[in-house]
Every structure is written in structure tokens, then in C-alpha cells.
Amino acid sequence: MVTDVAQELAAFLRNRRERLDPRDLGLPERRQRRTPGLRREEVAELAGISVDYVVRLEQARGLRPSADVVEALARALRLAPDERDYLFGLTRHRPPHAGERATAAPSLARLVEDLSPRPAMLMNHRYDVLAWNDEMARLFLDFGALPPSRRNAMWVCLVHPRMRELYVDRDRVLREGVAHLRAAWAVHPDDRLLAGLIAECAAGDEEFARLWAAQDVRVGGRGHKVLRHPDVGLVAVEFETLRPVQDPDHLLVVHRAADERSQAAMDRLRARDHAE
């Protein structure tokens, strides 16, 4: 059954309003309540909007509330995160950034380990590396040897001596990485850590500054890279990027050998490290 969006928004707001217990919100007791839950006047007061506006929304009069009003209604109605996102979706707005997890969820960290022998890592939208397995450390870089504040894939690509020499097609890799970072910045314009990273990279690296000024935007989920590994020579890898449903700002990147020669090189690297 196809549902009209305005009608669905009206029904959803009424439903969530009627589910609330006024006592849970510290509202004064009133003897006569003809309907369950909150009154429209109470929702309007909690959200800081007019009663007439709430009435028109619940009567599906074709209004499209602003993102600020949607956020205020979500708070007033005590919506759960998924319900809040649903309300933003109904009103054709993107939910504002609600806070970034600074560490990997334990289940995701275990998944990264379980993906061995595939090199895998978990990053957030800033390219901060939150988790990685041993294969990732052998093939690319042991992020555990870096201070936590420097475990950032963009920063190490620009600055770390090993990473600067690792990619055969470094120009393309860096260009695509900067384009992805610009797309992330558009979604998280208020992220001060992200803004600080961009400012630091632009001030310290002319190539990054040039690429950022080009304003290219790209969200690449899969691709191909050729590595110049110092121990096993050239290694061609393919990668796939996945987003966890409960942490959609996180990126799970899984690598695999692109050909038999590269697989043999990765096997040698793994066998050598196990022997040590």
C-alpha cells in the first residue's frame, strides 16, 4: 500500500504524542484528559512552536517543517534515534550529526579480527583508524605504533615515510582520498576535529591544498591499488568498503589480492611474520 508522505507524517506525530505519559515528562496533573498521551498544546510548548503549527502538521496540510523544527519535535516527543531519523526522512531532511563514536564498537573490532587473513580496518568519516587486524598492519602500516592522535589514514598518507612510498599510483590514491574527505565534510560541517584535520593538511602539504581547492567530490566504495611493499615487492589489491547499519559514519574496508602473484606475495609476508 502506498502511503502519502504528509499523511504518514501526521499519523506518526499523533501516534508518538499519544504514546507519551505526561508524568514521565514532569508535566502537571490534569484531571480531564479525553485522549491518551500529551495534548497538542503540551507538544507545542515543549518544542517551542505554535499550537496551530502542530495542528496543521497532524492534519496533513502539506507543511514541510524546517530541520530545526523537526529536531525540536523529536526532542519534545522523546523519539529514539531510529524514530528521529525516520522523522527527518519523512520531512526530506538529513539528520544532523549526532556525535561520532571515538572508538570501535567491540563487535566491530572483533569482526575486523575475524576477517583475517584478509587485511581489514575500520575507520570513521574523518579517516581515523579505529581498528585493524595483523594482516593490515603487515601489508600497510602498524597503526598501533603511532600515537592515537596520528592514527589517521589521510595524515599518514601525506606524512609517514613508509606510506608516502607505498602506493605506485599515489597521485590517484591521494586525489580520491581528498575527494572523499570533502564529501564527508559536507555531511559533517560542524565537526571541529574534521575541520582541524583539513586545515592542518592544507597548511602542511601543498599537494593536499591543491587537491582540496579543486573541489572534487567522490565517495568510492571499491577500487584497486598497487602497493610497493618493502619486503615482498609489488602487491595489487582490490578493496571493498562497507558501512555498518548502526554506525553509518564508519567504514569497514576489506582488501584481497587482485591476482595470483599478489596472493603469493601476501602469503610469503604472512608466513615470514609467523616464523619470527
Automatic annotation (TrEMBL):
One of its GO terms (molecular function) is DNA binding. InterPro entries: Cro/C1-type_HTH, Lambda_DNA-bd_dom_sf, MLTR_LBD. Pfam families: HTH_31, MLTR_LBD. SUPFAM superfamilies: lambda repressor-like DNA-binding domains. PROSITE patterns: HTH_CROC1. Residues 29-84 form the HTH cro/C1-type domain. PANTHER family: BLL4672 PROTEIN-RELATED (PTHR35010). This is Helix-turn-helix domain-containing protein.
